[in-house]
């Protein structure tokens, strides 16, 4: 399998067209006087669009991203983009443990960058050299520089691609896995399918089993499931259209960078543990970096495929490899009962109900995530 070094290089004409479109943005009128109550606030969106058009320096952001070692490889006949940072091995220390980090939606490899260097070179960040990891951060299929799979997008299917990437392309015999959201599902399938190669799985969002035939939900578990349904009723509009009519909304977002930004930042604010202050977690430069990556690659529509194909997913079976959960503090999982995780993970070794950090935990609380990853994987090296 051919591995090719890769650099991000957005053409000038794409950036010129982007600025022209941003300059011609037409903003809507807020539907509710309460700030952000009806979705992305038009006032904030206007500020972000103006910054994106006039102040954001994409070339500086691009150079910073290219400071990481990017590669593309053909796996199962499709291009997979990934960052691969070799761990720094100190004299006398064990070999770094390979670790694959998988992002979710509406995210990208950028979510994992704040933990990447800390994991690969702990000594340079106040850690023990013995805790070094070889870090692999792929872009999910259909996201940015990775092709959609040949068949349906399922968590299990992505896990199969990741296993090939780690074992056949990169030559690792044993590795750990970490992720949240879609990445959490992929991580769990890696543990379920490949217990011989996967040392352990660590997620920031636990999976709710749909099979209660043998053991009905407890009172606490049923309350959580009911609360989750109630939350989805208020938050699920975005997912319903992507589940049923993704190409309709994609047509608008592919044509309007302001619309694209609104679609993304609505979730970044709602799902982030930011107390309503989006930029306490995501500064404008990072928001514009993520939005530009989606815009330049034209992949917001293909990122919806995992929603449209969601009914093709099957419940994750019990995962026998060692497992860890750093439970995010986002509304949907804040009260997740440990007992639900234990239904999936009979060998749950690490359970941390985080007081800070939401859907994008690795970006929001990198030190917390790094500490938990080191604690969990340390005995498994």
From TrEMBL:
Pfam families in UniProt? EHN
**Protein name per UniProt:** Epoxide hydrolase
Record keywords: Ribosomal protein included?
Answer: no
Give the originating organism: Actinoallomurus vinaceus
Nucleotidyltransferase recorded as keyword? no
Q: Where is the Epoxide hydrolase N-terminal domain?
A: 3-112
Q: Which InterPro entries match?
A: AB_hydrolase_fold (IPR029058), Epox_hydrolase-like (IPR000639), Epoxide_hydro_N (IPR010497), Epoxide_hydrolase (IPR016292)
Q: GO molecular function terms here?
A: hydrolase activity
Which UniProt key words apply to this protein?
Aromatic hydrocarbons catabolism, Hydrolase
**What's the family?**
Belongs to the peptidase S33 family.
């Amino acid at each position: 399998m051919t591995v090719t070094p890769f650099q991000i290089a957005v053409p000038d004409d794409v950036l010129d067209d982007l600025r022209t479109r941003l300059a011609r943005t037409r903003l809507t009128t807020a539907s509710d006087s309460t700030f952000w109550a009806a979705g992305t606030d038009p006032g904030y969106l206007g500020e972000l669009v103006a910054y994106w058009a006039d102040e954001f320096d994409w070339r500086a952001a691009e150079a910073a991203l290219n400071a990481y070692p990017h590669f593309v490889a053909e796996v199962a006949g499709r291009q997979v983009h990934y960052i691969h940072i070799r761990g720094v091995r100190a004299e006398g220390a064990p070999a770094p443990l390979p670790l694959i980090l998988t992002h979710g939606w509406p995210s990208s490899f950028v979510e994992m960058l704040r933990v990447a260097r800390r994991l690969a070179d702990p000594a340079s960040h106040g850690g023990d050299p013995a805790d070094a990891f070889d870090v692999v951060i792929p872009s999910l299929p259909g996201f940015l520089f990775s092709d959609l799979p040949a068949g349906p997008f399922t968590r299990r299917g992505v896990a199969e691609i990741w296993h090939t990437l780690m074992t056949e392309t990169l030559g690792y015999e044993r590795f750990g896995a970490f992720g949240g959201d879609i990445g959490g599902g992929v991580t769990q399938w890696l543990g379920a399918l490949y217990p011989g190669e996967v040392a352990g799985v660590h997620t920031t969002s636990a999976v709710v089993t749909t099979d209660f035939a043998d053991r009905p939900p407890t009172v606490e578990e049923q309350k959580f499931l009911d609360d989750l349904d109630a939350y989805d009723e208020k938050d699920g509009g975005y997912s319903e259209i992507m589940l049923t009519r993704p190409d309709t909304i994609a047509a608008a977002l592919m044509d309007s960078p302001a619309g694209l930004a609104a679609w993304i930042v609505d979730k970044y604010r709602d799902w982030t543990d930011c107390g309503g202050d989006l930029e306490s977690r995501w500064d404008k430069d990072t928001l514009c970096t993520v939005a530009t990556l989606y815009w330049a690659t034209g992949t917001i529509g293909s990122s919806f495929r995992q929603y449209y194909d969601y009914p093709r997913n099957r419940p994750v079976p019990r995962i026998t490899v060692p497992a860890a959960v750093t439970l995010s503090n986002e509304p949907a999982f804040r009260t997740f009962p440990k007992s639900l995780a234990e239904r999936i993970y009979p060998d749950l070794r690490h359970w941390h109900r985080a007081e800070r950090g939401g859907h994008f935990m690795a970006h929001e609380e990198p030190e917390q995530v790094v500490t938990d990853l080191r604690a969990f994987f340390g005995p498994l090296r």
